[in-house]
Amino acid sequence: MSTLTSSAGGAADPGAGDTAIPSAQRVTPRPVTRDRPARAVLMLEDGRSFTGEAYGAIGEAFGEAVFSTGMTGYQETLSDPSFHGQIVIMTAPHIGNTGVNDTDYESDRIQVAGFVVRDPARRASNWRSRGSLEDELSAAGVVGISGIDTRALTRHLRERGAMRCAISSTLDIPAADTLALDTPTTDTPTTDIPPAGTSSAGTSAVAGAADGDARAALLGRVRRSPKMVGADLAPRVSTREPYLVAAAGDGPARFTVAALDLGIKRATPLALAALGCDVHVLPARSTGEQLLSLAPDGVFLSNGPGDPQTADYAVDALRTVLAAGVPVFGICFGHQVLARALGFETYKLTYGHRGVNQPVGDVATGRIAVTSQNHGFAVRAPLTGTTDTPYGRVVASHIGLNDNVVEGLECLDVPAFSVQFHPEAAPGPHDAAGLFEKFRDLMATTRTARVGSAGPGSAGPGSAGPVEPSADGAL
């Protein structure tokens, strides 16, 4: 189990066999004042640093630096369990305009390890708002930074890749005329940023020996912090106990779905419930037998954080489900789990896909959907043709149009498919919402085929005939 450091209040109690993620160091809530803001430093593991204002709680936070390109939906981003253990940089410059409310949370708490914005809103203005974003971050113990050049930071991560970083608002930093002091690495071009030691206004800002020592010590702590590769985080954000999201409406449920919670967002079971499904949400380490004990018409695999190579428990559970012939739908992390169960490998992307504007092409129809995505790992599978797996033939159903990443898989011989993006898409877009209807239809046709082949008196949901994998369970 990884020990990625997150901000205080950003992680649930550890489950059995999991090592607790330490809280951010010296985190304290603070009253918000913009008159005399505390100074803060963002330090990347390659030595580049940015100086700005503390935003949220005072303290230190460590995690993987990633950027999100959405212009809206910051509250959904903050509470998405897939961001657990990560410090999120918002590329949109103005964040916090609409404050926070009790409706837009996608989990029971803020999940990010830290938060980075360019220009925080001076005041929140929305009829649903119950307070400011900075107050919310501070109350949750989430360390953030504002007033830095997020454009330069994003370009750096695009060129160098996602990397470990820290935000600290506890260092003794000399005062400066600017809040966007940027210290690049020696081999980094500086054509779009002020030189180290100068402000954007050209004012000299000599850091001094004490400041240099403090930054060097912070850099050392960043480089000693755990990496995202090898991090088993799904059990950290999963439910501890099973729970039911009942089908919408007054009538009986049309389908029963067993959902494996690898970091599920609240909008997902609600989307299935709206289609007449009783959704039983189970902990991440649930076995295939426990999933099938609900006699489900289908099994859903959710999104989630961490490295899919660590999720052997979910892969083993899914192989049991696939062998039983029960329909499967996976999204995001669940897509990667299905890929591994079929025998494909996963790998880490340079900087990942995060935002609400990611174009994806449907291979079968040629239709292009603008999708919501949040992933740093991807599936290594052929983009064209069919691949023979232990569970039959598989094709790539969707392709990312920015970089040709496999964004979907479809099994041709068992009732299973997956996508790398979010069809529930809170806060949007909704181009891919029809995939939930596809899952509903797959459950209906599988049930009809099962009843027809078994004849009168056949068993109920979850009783499909077995599909035997190959002996070694690999390609």
Structure description:
The protein is of the alpha/beta class and 475 residues long. Helices cover 21% and strands 26% of the residues. The chain is built from 10 helices and 21 strands. It has helices spanning 74-78, 133-140, 150-160, 209-224, 234-237, 267-273, 288-292, 312-324, 333-342, 434-454; strands at residues 39-44, 49-56, 60-68, 86-90, 94-95, 114-116, 119-120, 143-146, 163-168, 182-183, 243-245, 255-260, 277-282, 298-301, 328-331, 345-362, 368-380, 386-389, 392-400, 406-411, 416-419. Strands 11, 12, 13, 14, 15, 16, 17, 18, 19, 20 and 21 form an 11-stranded mixed β-sheet that branches. A 7-stranded mixed β-barrel has the order 1-2-8-6-4-3-9. A two-stranded parallel ribbon has the order 5-7. Strand 14 (298-301), helix 8 (312-324) and strand 15 form a beta-alpha-beta unit. Helix 8 (312-324) packs across helix 9. The model is unreliable at 1-26, 176-181, 185-207 and 459-475 (pLDDT under 50).
In short:
By secondary structure, the chain is α/β, with parallel strands linked by helices. It is built from 10 helices and 21 strands.
Key terms for this structure?
disordered N terminus, 21 strands, 10 helices, 26% strand, 475 residues, alpha/beta, disordered C terminus, single chain
